[in-house]
Amino acid sequence: MNLKTLMKKIMLLLMFTLPAKAVVINPQLIDGFAYIESNFNDKAIGKAGEKGAWQFGKAAWADCNAERIKMGKPVYHWSKAHDRGIASDYAHLYLCLIHGRLWKALDREPSVGELYAAYNCGVNGFANRFEGKISKCPVTTQKAISKLIKYLK
Predict the structure, then answer these.
(1) For residues 118 and 73, what is the distance between their CA atoms, to the nearest angstrom?
(2) Contact of 91 with 85, CB cutoff 8 Å
(3) Is the pTM of this model over 0.90?
(4) What integer is the mean pLDDT of 17-24?
(5) Residue 21: pLDDT over 80
(6) Are 116 and 145 within 8 A, CB to CB?
(7) DSSP collapsed to 3 states, 10-58
(8) pLDDT tens digits for range 24-58
């Protein structure tokens, strides 16, 4: 087994066996969301106008911009959602934002699957409408979570 394979297995072991607070928003997880959302297609445009590999909606992009302003970082127009480098930074930030909000809504650390459900359905949608339960989410979201878990292996 090569070092890269070993490190990947260790990361997965840590992500799925340690307490949920061990969920790490790392490059592999960020890439996993791009894989699920668009199969890494930077030019993708969703049914509701979402853009780029991570299928950013305008509100999610604006949410990141507001946070970036607080952090003293440059902000970019939503049209930059098609730029892999910029969108990747925004995806990292957005996953961190969702993670914190979902933790607060669930009153516990979310799992990777729950994080994706909140990304896909919105934090409030997942926590309230679907009662924080993946099993109550649309079948398409449940299938995407399974696909994400396989990708992370």
Answers:
(1) 25
(2) no
(3) no
(4) 52
(5) no
(6) yes
(7) HHHHHHHHCCHHHCCCCHHHHHHHHHHHHCCCCCCECCCCCECCCCECH
(8) 899 999 999 999 999 999 999 999 999 999 999 99
* φ, ψ (nearest 5 deg) of residue 56: -70, 130
Nearest to 143 by CA among 106, 116, 103: 116
pLDDT range class, residue 14, cuts 50, 70, 90: very low
In the chain, what is the straight-line distance between the N-terminal and C-terminal CA atoms, in Å?
A: 15
Quick check: 59 and 83 in contact, CB under 8 A? no
Give the Cα separation of 130 and 133 in Å (integer).
6
DSSP bridge pairs for 51: 45, 56
| Angle, alpha carbons 16-138-153 (nearest 5°) | 25
Token pair in block for residue 71: 């952090």
CB atoms within 10 A of CB 33: 24
